[in-house]
């Protein structure tokens, strides 16, 4: 199954199709500065998954020569063997209390130096990297599940939805105005046993 990636950096647009391998789903843009991979998902028991003892991770690696600024969030959806969404057992709003009037000013963007990598741990009991909420799942039945991880940052969308009250929303040095615009989706299959 192909993974579509779109990179926007300044006026440059790179479109690449990454081929997903069987167990480890990773994708690379032929000329892009960011490599994204998902660690191999192993078989785990329902007890391990539901207690938080099982996890996988999404890794971002800067393969370029300059620093990259990244959006710190990756959305996650869990699908059952029929492709239907599994209901969440936890959902806590992300941006309720804050120090400033603007949400975007309080987001800690990730700076990746050349050659460095950044991991996003994926734990179904409590997943803290969704852009809208801290979320979790308790799987009720053994079987095959699919985790759909989507890393997406669109500057205009983020500024519109999170920038209200920002003192310098369009400032060139603001991290959201320098962050790599990208949209990548990865699927990870897990086998939950009794």
Supply database-style keywords.
mainly beta; four-stranded antiparallel sheet; Immunoglobulin-like; six-stranded mixed sheet; 194 residues
Explain this structure.
The protein has helices at 46-51, 155-162, 175-178, and strands at 2-9, 12-19, 26-28, 34-38, 44-45, 56-62, 68-70, 75-79, 90-93, 110-112, 117-122, 133-136, 143-153, 181-193. The protein is mostly beta strands and 194 residues long. The strands form 4 sheets. Strands 1, 2, 5, 8, 13 and 14 form a 6-stranded mixed sheet that branches. Strands 3-4-6-11 form a 4-stranded antiparallel sheet, with no helix packed on it. Strands 7-10 form a two-stranded antiparallel sheet. The chain is globular and about 55 Å long. It starts with a strand and ends with a strand. The model is unreliable at 1-30 (pLDDT under 50).
> What letter string, H or E per element, gives the SSE order?
EEEEEHEEEEEEEEHHE
CATH superfamily: Immunoglobulins
Number of strands: 14
- Structural class designation: mainly beta
Mean pLDDT: 85
Separate helix tally: 3
Q: Uncertain regions: pLDDT < 50 for 5+ in a row?
A: 1-30
Any idea how many domains? 1
Strand percentage lies at 35-45%
Which bin fits the share of residues in helices? Answer: under 10%
Question: Any idea what the radius of gyration is?
Answer: 17 Å
What's the shape? globular
For the biggest sheet, the summary is: 6 strands, mixed
**CATH architecture, please?**
Sandwich
- CATH uppermost class: Mainly Beta
N-C termini distance? 29 Å
Under CATH, the topology is which?
Immunoglobulin-like
């Amino acid at each position: 199954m192909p993974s579509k990636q779109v990179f926007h950096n300044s006026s440059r647009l790179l479109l690449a199709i990454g081929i997903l391998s069987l167990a480890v789903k990773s994708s690379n843009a032929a000329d892009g500065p960011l490599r994204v991979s998902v660690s191999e998902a192993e078989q785990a028991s329902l007890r391990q998954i539901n207690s938080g003892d099982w996890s996988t991770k999404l890794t971002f690696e800067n393969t370029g020569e300059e620093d990259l600024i990244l959006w710190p969030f990756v959305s996650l959806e869990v699908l059952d063997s029929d492709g239907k969404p599994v209901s969440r057992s936890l959902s806590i709003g992300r941006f309720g209390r804050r120090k400033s009037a603007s949400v975007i000013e309080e987001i800690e963007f990730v700076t990746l130096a050349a050659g460095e990598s950044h991991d996003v741990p994926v734990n179904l009991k409590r997943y803290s990297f969704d852009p809208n909420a801290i979320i979790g799942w308790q799987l009720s039945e053994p079987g095959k599940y699919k985790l759909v991880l989507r890393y997406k940052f669109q500057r205009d969308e983020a500024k519109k939805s999170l920038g209200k009250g920002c003192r310098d929303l369009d400032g060139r040095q603001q991290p959201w105005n320098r962050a790599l615009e990208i949209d990548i989706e990865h699927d990870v299959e897990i086998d939950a046993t009794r």
